[in-house]
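S.,

Sequence below, as promised.
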Amino acid sequence: MPFSNPFHARSIPPLHAKVLGLVVMLTGAWANMADALDAPLMTEAARPPAVLGYKVVNAWPHDRGAFTQGLILRDGFFYESTGLNGRSSLRKVNPETGEVLKHETVAREFFAEGLCDWKGKLIQLTWQSGKAFVYDIKTFKRTGEFAYNGEGWGITHDGKHLIMSDGSATLRFLDPKTFQQTRTLEVTYQGKPLANLNELEYVRGRIFANVWQSNSIVVIDPDSGRVTAQLDLAGLLSPEDRAVGVDVLNGIAYDAKNDRLFVTGKLWPKVFEIKLEPTDLLDKPHQLKR
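The prediction came back faster than expected:
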């Protein structure tokens, strides 16, 4: 007769076959359990962002008529872009007094938005006109402009690229010489896209962003787009200050030389210098050098 495999199912008594089947099932179950134990409890993308605290270091006066869309601090002065059609402007401001030292009116048809500096120039976005203006930082003389698709909200830079928001969950990276888009970055909060990204500032290797219609600033990893930390500033303005027609939190400025952070809002009466706690959550190897 032909050779018979002693382990063929038909050659195993029924009871032994059941025992063997149970062993196989248990072996598979243990393997699945081992895989589960080796797997992380939560993916990095879905991990909740760290919660940052803060303390107020200083509070300085701010023009209540300034509908703040962009704010930076350079060489001891604030440079500010204000919005609304017919009220949009570019300003140089004394931080301690709030005095406007230089003022450039933006044409009525434009609603000015975010602001950043780049190599002796200021770059100011507009909301729905698809156009950005370039100024000499000393004279405020307009030296150029460039076009972009969609809306303009906030803008900053990382020392190599301009980084622009448009109200969506996607940030655009632009070549600062040609203003051409080089890449995009989707920003996620616990694995889901986070829209309404507004005013931007590059701080210690991370992108800080106001989230429109909220009291939050989120801290974004510029490589992955993941929100790694969140700052709630709901209690920053006093009830008395809020009672006189303020708008949303908007405006982040960073003094890289002295590691100082400033925040304000649209029509706010004050600019606040705040210190984040704990600061080690912001450490990142590729820090900006100005």
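The CA atoms of residues 23 and 29 lie 10 Å apart.

Coffee later?
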